[in-house]
Write a structure and sequence with these properties.
Elements: H1 25-29, E1 36-43, E2 55-62, E3 67-71, H2 78-85, E4 93-98, E5 101-102, H3 108-117, E6 119-123, H4 134-144, H5 149-157, H6 178-190, E7 196-200, H7 208-225, E8 228-232, H8 236-239, E9 244-249, E10 252-258, H9 264-267
Parallel strand pairs: 3-8, 3-9, 6-7, 7-8
Antiparallel strand pairs: 1-2, 1-4, 4-5, 9-10
Helix pairs in contact: 4-5, 4-6, 6-7
Length: 288
C-alpha cells in the first residue's frame, strides 16, 4: 500500500498585523498564489557603497511545483539569494513576493512566522537536536508554532514510512546514518506542509550513493504536492535532479536552464548522472 503525505500548500495562515507586509495585487493577478518572485534584488554587506554587492539586481520567478538548483562559484551570491528568498535575511533593496506579500518588507516577527509555516528548510548538516529522538525532531516546528503535542507527533510519525524511516522514530541523531539523518531533516522540513522547501547543500556531507537516495526523496515532494524546491549546490550531479538550474556569478544571474530532471528510476545505473541507484519513489499527495 502506498504511503501518502498531504501538504496543504494553499493554507495562507500567516497573520498580518500593523507590522505586516504590503499586498501586491499585480503579483497575484499574473501568477498562482504559490509562485515565488524576486524583483530587482540587491544585497550589500557592510557600509562600503563602492564594494560589489552580494546580489546585484536579481529577477527570478519560481513557479509552484518547480525544482530549482542554484549554482555558482564561491562568493557568487547563491547562498545569499537563498537566504533572501527564504526570509532569513532582508535585502538592501528589491522585493520578494509570496502569496501577494512582500517578504522583504515584513517585520522580523512576521518573517519568523512565515519561515515556520510556509517555508521548510534542509541544511547540509541536518541540524537535528542530538538530545531528541527523531520523531520529536520532526514534530518540533509544529510544537513551537503552538500545535498540541499529540497532533504534532501524529503528523510527524506519518512522514516516516514514505521517507523510508519506519522503525527509526525513537532513535536519536547519533544513532542514525548520514542519509537517515538527512531524511529526518527532510521530514522536519515537510511537517508544516510548506509551499516552498529551501535546501542549502543538502547532500554536501554525503557520499554519492546516499546523495542520490536523499535527492530522490527530496525531489519527490514538488512533483506530487505542488510545493517548490529551491536548493543551493556546487555539484552538477545534484543539480541534475532538478527541472531547472540557475547560475550566479558576482551577484548576477548568468544562466537559466530547464531540462528533464533525473528521477529515482532514471538514476538507476546512470553513472553519468548520479553514479548511484536512486531510492524507490516516494509518494506525496496534494490536497484532495
Amino acid at each position: 500500500m502506498s504511503n501518502h503525505i498531504s501538504p496543504d500548500c494553499s493554507d495562507a495562515r500567516m497573520p498580518l498585523g500593523a507590522t505586516g507586509a504590503q499586498r501586491h495585487p499585480s503579483a497575484s493577478a499574473t501568477s498562482t498564489p504559490l509562485d515565488l518572485f524576486a524583483r530587482s534584488l540587491v544585497m550589500r554587506y557592510g557600509r562600503d557603497a563602492a564594494a560589489p554587492p552580494a546580489l546585484g539586481g536579481v529577477d527570478l520567478r519560481i513557479t509552484a511545483g518547480e525544482t530549482v538548483a542554484v549554482m555558482g562559484p564561491s562568493g557568487s551570491g547563491k547562498t545569499t539569494l537563498l537566504h533572501v528568498l527564504a526570509g532569513i535575511a532582508a535585502p538592501t533593496s528589491g522585493q520578494v513576493l509570496w502569496k501577494g506579500l512582500d517578504v522583504a518588507r515584513m517585520s522580523d516577527r512576521d518573517r519568523t512566522s512565515l519561515r515556520r509555516r510556509d517555508f521548510g528548510f534542509v541544511f547540509q548538516q541536518g541540524m537535528l537536536l542530538p538530545e531528541l529522538p527523531a520523531v520529536e525532531n520532526v514534530a518540533l516546528p509544529l510544537m513551537i508554532d503552538g500545535a498540541r503535542r499529540g497532533e504534532a507527533m501524529k503528523r510527524a510519525r506519518a512522514l516516516f514510512a514514505p521517507l523510508g524511516l519506519s522503525g527509526l522514530e525513537s532513535r536519536r541523531p547519533g544513532e542514525l546514518s548520514g542519509g537517515q539523518a538527512q531524511r529526518v531533516a527532510i521530514a522536519r522540513a515537510l511537517v508544516a506542509r510548506p509551499g516552498v522547501v529551501f535546501a542549502d547543500e543538502p547532500t554536501g556531507a554525503l557520499d554519492q550513493t546516499t546523495s542520490a537516495e536523499v535527492m530522490g526523496h527530496l525531489t519527490a515532494l514538488p512533483r506530487h504536492s505542488g510545493a517548490s524546491l529551491v536548493l543551493v549546490t556546487h555539484d552538477e550531479n545534484v543539480a541534475a535532479w532538478c527541472s531547472r538550474t540557475i547560475s550566479l556569478r558576482d551577484g548576477l544571474l548568468t544562466s537559466d536552464v530547464r531540462r528533464a530532471p533525473v528521477t529515482a528510476s532514471t538514476a538507476t545505473g546512470a553513472t553519468g548522472a548520479t553514479g548511484a541507484t536512486g531510492p524507490a519513489a516516494t509518494t506525496f499527495s496534494g490536497r484532495s
